[in-house]
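Sharing a chain and its predicted structure for anyone who wants a worked example. Both blocks are below, sequence first, tokens second.
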Amino acid sequence: MERKIIPIGGGLLRLGETIAIDKFIVKESGRKNPKVLFIPTASKDLPAYSVAFRRVYKKLGCQVKILRLFNKTKFSQTTVEKLITSADIIYVGGGDYDILLSMWKKHKIIPFIQSAYRRGTILSGLSAGCAVWYEYLIDSDENKKIHLKKGLGMLKGIAIPHYKTENPFPLEIRKTKTIVTAIEDKCAVIYINEHLKGSIPVTREKAFTMRHPHVKKKQVTLYFHKSR
């Protein structure tokens, strides 16, 4: 069973900015009407976000369910586990990464997500939902000294979502000995069995990697979907 992760650098789903990527994710599932679970924790379960996601993915032929961890109605662990492990695709919304991680730990859903991934569920997400799959991500607050936060570690290295091509990698990051992956808005990358296979741009957006001891960015080449 192939394991796939498709992190998206950024973009407004409700405005259709990532629709080419959304179609790609659905196609990669290999199912006619895949079961998609949306987890909007990072936005504090913002209702408008869930409405937009459901609208977009239902149009793509998906069966959509939403896991709201801020819901006053408490789900049993059995119900949560079933929601997660029965999904063909898990999509994690953007927002506040610290809120996302603390709530996931509080509700003990991380092992369920890891188990679903090992069974072949596609993992995806945008912004915070992009970075969470990596070992580390950069704290993007411009008023703070750059430091790293821990992710789930399914993918090696450091993630930089919302990257801008004209920006150099920060000096502190260039000194690291691990791989750095930077993804522009309206661009995604695909990993198969934890190996980076390429980028999925909406138009001409880009993704880059950098490995120690090289300090120059290397553009990720376009990934072509193989028809089934």
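Comments welcome. The chain has seven helices and 13 strands.
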